[in-house]
């Protein structure tokens, strides 16, 4: 830090906020700490009584926080993301440019944040976002950072972006509501409307509905007809518990699905089934979900944790569910604040 005449400060970095007082109107920082003095700033500073200024000496091999923030933001920018604007007080935000699911490379994010004097904060990955939502913010900690430390963070990030938004691509769905009591009309089907409403939030329209009862052959037939109708997603509701007459998982398997998981380390939603119907080579597999009854009456369940990725056409694997146990216990908060606080995370 050194003291220079204001007229000689162009291009230098201010060490302190510079407060401007306009009698009867305002009092506040006219120039923030870290501001790079421009030629047009000189007269303003002189009018504020600032004949001399304390500035940082930006030595060779050092990078100003604004320039460093731009480089840090560049590490984040994957598909359907962009910077929100120029750095503000050394920080840059990254926003979504499309509706979809936020994908975060968690391992490389940890590696970057393990580097000295840098930081990246993101939303939790695998949840839905809307266009213009803020996804992340990044900056360096000091006012100026050594080039080698910034380069180390860039190396930790690797060649691929840390973030991406995968747009929703599924458009149509079938809902097959199992249960003899529903098929016979003894009770009203209250499950299908819940699923219809949830899917609509991702732009998915339910174009096929069936109430085949509990018999495995009938459920298989309904699934076959749903697939033949050309839907992007098949959702089976009910019949997912361990009762002997709950045949939905067996029907889904018999219909030819490749089951990824039957069961998840999430409460509510332990009895979830996720599978896929593989089609022609190169074609996107059609997901099939066996949704447990808890989704009918609980606002947030395992279904809500997987739907963003399903809607984006991201094929789930067994390991995706293995990691859900930590944070997978719903605390039953009243009122429920999902999705702001999914399962108390």
What report would you give on this structure?
With 345 residues, the chain is α+β, with helices and mostly antiparallel strands. The protein folds into 3 domains: 2-56, Molybdopterin biosynthesis moea protein, domain 2; 62-167, Pyrimidine nucleoside phosphorylase-like, C-terminal domain (Aldehyde Oxidoreductase, domain 3); 172-344, Molybdenum Cofactor Biosythetic Enzyme, Chain A (3-Layer(aba) Sandwich). It has 11 helices and 20 strands. The strands form 6 sheets. Strands 16-15-17-20-19-18 form a 6-stranded mixed beta sheet, with helices on both faces. Strands 7-8-12-10 form a 4-stranded antiparallel beta sheet. A 3-stranded antiparallel beta sheet has the order 1-5-2, with no helix packed on it. A hairpin with an 8-residue loop joins strand 19 and strand 20. It is elongated. The model has no long low-confidence stretch (mean pLDDT 91).
Compose a concise summary of this entry.
With 345 residues, the chain is of the alpha+beta class. It has 11 helices and 20 strands.
Could you tell me the mean pLDDT?
Answer: 91
What is the CATH superfamily classification of the largest domain? MoaB/Mog-like domain
CATH topology-level fold name of the largest domain: Molybdenum Cofactor Biosythetic Enzyme, Chain A
The largest β sheet comes out as: 6 strands, mixed
Percentage of residues assigned to helices: 25-40%
CATH architecture of the largest domain, by name, is 3-Layer(aba) Sandwich
Strand content: 25-35%
Please identify the top-level CATH class of the largest domain: Alpha Beta
Report the structural category: alpha+beta
Tally of helical runs: 11
- Low-confidence stretches are none
> What is the terminal separation in angstroms?
43 Å
Strand order of the largest sheet: 16-15-17-20-19-18
Count of folded domains: 3
Quaternary structure state of the chains depicted: single chain
**Which of globular, elongated, flat, extended, rod-shaped describes the shape?**
elongated
Q: Give the radius of gyration.
A: 27 Å
Domain MoaB/Mog: 174-312
Catalytic activity: adenylyl-molybdopterin + molybdate = Mo-molybdopterin + AMP + H(+)
Function: Catalyzes the insertion of molybdate into adenylated molybdopterin with the concomitant release of AMP.
Pfam families: MoCF_biosynth (PF00994)
